[in-house]
Amino acid sequence: MGRRYKKQMYEEYGHEFSTDESFNLAYRKVKRIKGFYSHLRVYFIVNIIIIISSLNKPYVDGHFVMRGFQNWEIYSTAFYWGIALLIHAFVVFGPDVFFSRDWEEKKIQKYMEKESQNKNKWE
Length: 123
Fold this sequence. Notes:
Elements: H1 3-17, H2 21-53, E1 59-60, E2 63-64, H3 72-93, H4 103-121
Antiparallel strand pairs: 1-2
């Protein structure tokens, strides 16, 4: 779907939900998540370009010199930007980005169901 189409759909139907606070919260949350994934996409594209462009082979003293993977300056952008990206992830997804509050309960339930299926399997 095009960006204009989505905006048009929001403008047409948004007034129906504009007074609904849960809709507004969900809409803002989706926009923040979308912003994070755009940030992530740009991070990968730019850093891949930086790393690939640094793998050139200049001709020095009669032989080619590979200066790609040993140079810290190449990775410093990815490293520091990666820290900013992690901060962005924590802002968007909260501190429960990896293990949500109910993650432990879901895992326990999953393993209990799996165990009960294994017991019933032989009966």
